[in-house]
Amino acid sequence: MLKRKISKKIEEYLKSDSNKMLIVDGARQIGKSYIIRYVGRKLFENYIEINMEDDKLNDRIFADANSVNKFYLALSSVAGEKMKDRQSTLVFIDEIQAYPHLFTLVKFLMQDRRFTYIASGSLLGVTLRKTQSIPIGSIQQIHMYPLDFEEFLWANNVGEMLIEEMQRCFVAKESLPEAIHKKIMGLFRQYLLVGGLPDAVNSFIAEHNIFNIRNIQNEVYELYLEDAAKYEADSNRKLKIQRIYKMIPSSLESRKKRIVVKDIEDKAGKRSSDYQDEFDYLVSSGIALEVDAISQPTFPLIQNAGKNLLKLYVNDIGIFTGILYHNNIKPLLEDMRSINLGSVYETAVAQELKAHGHELFYYDSKKNGEVDYLINNYESLSAIPLEVKSGKDYTVHSVLDRLLSVEDYAVKRAYVLSNEGNVSEKNGVTYMPVYNVMFF
Question: What average pLDDT does the segment 344-371 reach?
């Protein structure tokens, strides 16, 4: 059983007697159903689970359940003996997006208060945009991601005592002992290989077989390609969505790391705005992470964000490295000078920051250059620049220096994340190991 941070939030919700339905959103195959099932069965004597995708493909019992009474009748046909009372009965509606009319029904199910409810969905952002009657005030939505690095450490039996000491060193800007740094850095490299898909992590722990791990990741990648246009009726838009998704790895290996818009349909004169719906679809489905360009790095970052220079990252670092290196583990586990891991490290950092609730931005200036990430600091009301380095030149960062020197930007500190274990600070820049992104 993989320990997941979101389980605490799910348990708190199920014990709260809330009048809102919790919907756990996220891409497929990241463990949503498993963790809800685990917590739900632990807390409720009568646990009922209905997968609406399966129902839609088979019996379609819930296809016409557009009223509370019709929903109860459909529910009784599959779990009538478990339908007791609110305190003892949990109804888990899995893949709720398969039937958009259920979103409208949520309000009335919660008002009726006959049972306790929880739901999950894989394309909620997409589906909710197309739902005519969104139950505002009746749903509570939280997003789930693949395992982050701390959860990966838990899975590999790294104890809380060590993680707490790592966090203390992060706050105090102290270095870990060299042996501990090497151990954690080794696990971080393995995380780049395995990623955070639960099936891949379980396979790694049980077998340490790269062939099996890559097969799992490849299957999920193909599933995401199918999902990328699942709810689009327009076949031309489906092809564009899938084309953009396939372009993400190669774009990240380019110098600018951005999608080249003219390559989507091989048409000159196209702009990012021409594909905004396609970009939104990929991000809303949870299979891609967006990083918006900022030319003015001032707080709050959202007020300066632009969509014209959008970067997209794959949602799981293991899928990404599988596309790049297939079954070859040397580029990730060994220091190979001929291999540039810049895009790999950036993807891992994007995944980690997003899992921690950060909106993602990067600095882009024709005059000054680029910085990999900017995040909001709500305590100091300023932006924090992050530069990710996979090589030995981690102390070279002229753009960071520029951001720190401009008084109007109010940038108080910056970070460089690299392979180096030694934590140091100079001229407002803190150098620390890349795995410390788990504490941002």
Answer: 94
